[in-house]
Amino acid sequence: MRIQPSALLLSMLMLCAPLAGCFGPDEGNQSADNDEGWFDFDVSLDGRTWYHYPGGLDAQNNTSALGGLNVPFFTQGTYYGTGFSTFEPTMGITSTNNLYFASYGNGPSGSTAVVQCSGMVEMVALSDFSCQNIYDPIFPVVNSNDPYIYVDPWTDRIMKFDMHALLGMTVEWSDNEGDSWAGPSVATGYSVQDHQTLSSSPYPALFHDTLWVFCINGNWPSPLCAASQDGGLTWGPELPGAPIDCQSGGLSAHMVGAENGHFYRGQRGCDGTGYSMYKTDDGALTWTEHVLPTEVSGTAETWNAEEAQVDADSESNVYAMWMGADDMPYFSYSLDEANTWSPAVMIAPAHLQGTGFPVIIAGDPGRVAFGYIGTETDGTWNGYMSIMTDAFNETPLITTVQINDPSDPLDNASPTCGYERCGGFGDFLDMQIDAYGRPWFSLSHNPSGDTGIYGALTDGPTLRGNLSALSTMPLGGAATL
After folding, report:
1. Arithmetic mean of pLDDT over the chain
2. Which helix (H) or strand (E) holds 6?
3. Number of domains forming the structure of the chain
């Protein structure tokens, strides 16, 4: 049974009532007597931005928790069409500010196109960006199933990771923004292959600056994972991506490599219930389970119920996101490498009735962005980004934007889109942060033929460096499809 937001709101209020500090100011924060003007922006909001606390509680009606880094910024969201169809739109950003995503079947000879969108990160007018396929090797690798794109944030290597009829994976890579491609190397081939995820970290590798690790659903009680010590040319054996007796199932969320060399991935717990984070600190040879705090949230019973998304910030703090039994997104963080976790909080605005396809990205400590699709009551689905600039605060301010206009939904054909495989969303979406601290959300506009789109903040706070406002970008939307 889905818990209605009104019930959750009442529960939050009852829990907070006896706690003197629950919504009181933290030390050093401004009190309610001195907070006039927190939301007096020079520009009017467009009705698609909500400022709230965990549980969907309206922050504009109680500003006593604001102050320090926990402050509102004028924030708006939009999306930009790429002109290419997509399926499971993973993405990456290089240090030259180019954005990349995979376009299934639109490359040469039916291969996966690698779409480069240039000029988008620093655009002033919509005419400043363009998107084109930059995958055109002499012998293109034709894929038959899920595409996957990943950009190594430490080396800028673009990784193209294709699945072939559930039988194996190939990896190709480019170190020059797609001008030339190396590979393919055969990553797997001796087990069933599906639902791949790929990441890197500065863990000491023998013949490359970073270690690469992938995990797949390989017809095993838990995911199988393998590592490459030479940048993807050769791969080690597939080993269990969880404790050897773990019965979590094989479907994993996106994996992430942290600055300290650890890798994390989230999914069901080893006992088949709840959610856990799985960590390796020895280059994917062994993994440990770290149970997430799902006592309050419960766990979703939908298509992506197995996934608990994860990211690590610039100082290797770890952030987790998952869907609860009420089909709403929950969040927790760890300051000790996933050994202990903060209490879970619900991060969506109160008007949403359900959400799906979670993804999370972190910048500097305490600054995190969440992406998901959501529905109100009419069965249409929209794209949302929620931002925290002080995630470690007892009462963090959450700024949520809807990236599409209500008259321009991202899906209006399936009332249950967020709970099942749906159009270009496939199994999962993706998020990254550019060098200026702006989060980017890759997803699909299904009514326009599964067009790949990037959700972004036109205005808002930066998630990197000194807390300040991002430069303003032009509104996109349906005009860019």
Report:
1. 89
2. helix 5-16
3. 1
